[in-house]
Amino acid sequence: MLDIENLKVEFKSHGRSIAPVDGVSFSVGRDQTVGLLGESGCGKSVTALSVLRLFPMASKARLSGAIRFGGRDLLQSGDDALRGIRGKDIAMIFQEPMTSLNPLHRVGKQLAEMLGIHTDLPRGEIDARVVAMLERVGLARAAQLVNEYPHSLSGGMRQRVMIAMALLCKPQVLICDEPTTALDVTIQAQILDLMRDLKREQQTSILMITHDLGVVAEMCERVVVMYAGQVVEESTVTDLFDRPAHPYTHALMRARPALDSTPGAPLTAIPGSVPPPGQAGPGCRFAARCPRAQDVCRKEMPPLEEIAPGHTARCWYPH
Ligand SMILES: Nc1ncnc2c1ncn2[C@@H]1O[C@H](COP(=O)(O)OP(=O)(O)O)[C@@H](O)[C@H]1O
Ligand SMILES: [Mg+2]
Fold this sequence. Notes:
Elements: E1 2-13, E2 16-28, E3 33-37, H1 44-52, E4 61-69, E5 72-73, H2 79-85, E6 90-93, H3 107-118, H4 123-136, H5 142-145, H6 155-167, E7 173-177, H7 185-202, E8 205-210, H8 213-219, E9 222-227, E10 230-236, H9 237-242, H10 247-254, H11 295-299, E11 305-308, E12 311-313
Parallel strand pairs: 3-8, 3-9, 6-7, 7-8
Antiparallel strand pairs: 1-2, 1-4, 4-5, 9-10, 10-12, 11-12
The protein binds adenosine-5'-diphosphate and magnesium ion.
Adenosine-5'-diphosphate binds near residues 43, 46, 55, 56 and 59.
């Protein structure tokens, strides 16, 4: 459904070029949910923004590789073609709903605009679909809500409005960038349930960006683990949890509280931090933080290799 091939994103920074996404490849199949996992600063959001080219105006991003969708390469598509795809075929949900919602317009108007741009439906039908979708995402009093402004809603309600907006045109692909990170756990669980139900109803393919292994376990079939702008491991969710191969994935697992862990037992934080783009050495980008690192790891970049059917890892000494 969506094939990202050798994607590289470069920004000019202080006269030199940095690449926060550096040769990333993965696919999201039809009706599949793929998790994109990694610590903050690994390049997950930049990868997501590349698909619909949603970078801030000021940032002069240079993209190379290919992003294949529906028989074409989005990187080679013009702005008009992309505008036709955004929101209709591929929709995005962000961590912060106010990046998608306009504070100056009533909720109903913003949703109706989406359908107005992408469909020829008559006004009455559009309004009916907007109210129905708001009800579908669990918002009570939808008929009144359409007349309210985003600021009068709670964070959880805004997130639901944004999901409603994203799903209104029944997109084939939904890209969710940390959609529940800012919400408390109860609301988070409700929103994830909702997304699972909607996916079942609409057969949407989902790219679920998160740093939360719990979200991956609950929502995804496959996982792509990113580190410092590269894919370091990819497998099914079951394989990743049962047989994590890359030491970085191992470390992420140990940094996570388990239900059966002794109360009060310390979590193992990963020492150090993700090297900023352009500052990793020639070898494996995780080498400086890796308990298994040998000389070769610091000198030579390991290739991403298949270590079992459907399971790849970028490591000289995979588990
Ligand atoms: N517009 C931009 N210009 C320059 N650097 C950027 C820009 N956007 C993101 N970056 C850098 O790219 C790296 C990856 O960022 P990001 O994709 O947001 O990480 P993640 O979503 O995994 O937390 C960071 O080091 C960030 O500072
Ligand atoms: Mg991000």
